[in-house]
Amino acid sequence: MGRRIVLQNADLRVVCLPGHGMLITEIVPQSHGANLLWQRQDGPLHDFDRPATATSEADPFDEQVFAGGWFGMFPNAGIPGVLDSGEQMHGSFPREAWKVVHQGDATLSCTLETDGFEAVRTLRLTENTVRVDTEVTNVRAGDREVSFGEHPCFSREVFGGGTVLVEADGAHTTNEVSEPGANRFAAGQEFVWPHAEVVGGGVARVDLVPVEPDASHDHLCVRLADPCVEISVPRLGGKVSVRSDMGATPNLLFWRHFRPPASPWRGDVFGIEMMSTPGRTRDDARAADALRVVRQGETVKWYLAVSWDVRPISAYS
After folding, report:
1. Residues 120-129, mean pLDDT to the nearest whole number
2. Fewest Cβ atoms closer than 10 Å to its Cβ: which of 84, 137, 148, 167?
3. Contact yes or no for 65/53 (Cβ under 8 A)
4. Residue 305: which of 126, 53, 172 has the closest Cα?
5. Which residues, including other chains, have CB under 8 Å from residue 207's CB and lie 6 or more apart?
6. What is the C-alpha to C-alpha distance for residues 253 and 233, in angstroms, rounded to an integer?
7. CA 42, CA 94: separation in Å to the nearest integer?
8. pTM surpassing 0.85?
């Protein structure tokens, strides 16, 4: 395992691995001791001595990079499109070693130079909240189309029986599914959150985290009406709030992966992926004319904050 940096206060303990994409591996409420983030049991957690730089045609992300936790995505969020042979799944942020420039009792700042950009990510722990602010400047990339966002992976085991409360302006399932036959919700449908058509007919709620893994694998795309997503945690008697920057990341990709049969790594996890672009792939973003052109000298900023609270989740009306 790579170098671990631990930040903690009376409410939370947070563990970060700067050398492995500045990956946050643990968010643990001090009063309960359960890690809210899902970690892959056999996942790679080494410091990178060189970037995992293969492109989308032969991408080593699952084998060399993905370990769960919470990581940033840039200059590509999600999966590259048909015309994007030079882009990487989730971009270069999670694939490279970040340099620590400041470490305090409750703060950690790291920098990275990648793809012609200079990036700074600052992790702050304030009472019951972990917040990561990101600032990226185009120093020599020319005019570049980008997408970006955050990818926290939450543990189905810890959140089982919980509800994901989202205020949505619209929602749909992806046209293509990762594992045909494992998707619970019918592909290519628009729906009104939280009720969607299931495969084979009928309607079910998409917002319920199953008590036991149900072998399903789905991607649900949401246009947010409010920047805060709340998730109840019945097992711990509280809730988690995930708050983003609506101006920068107005889209949610809700990833459900509850031990589908074809998964090589037995993932029992769901992702609340706040993104600048809609959909799952760069093709989706391009079709929506949502890719952002960052010109040389320009800076983009966004943040994500995850809070633990013992107050109950808001109820649906």
Report:
1. 97
2. 167
3. no
4. 126
5. 163, 164, 165, 166, 193, 194
6. 20
7. 17
8. yes
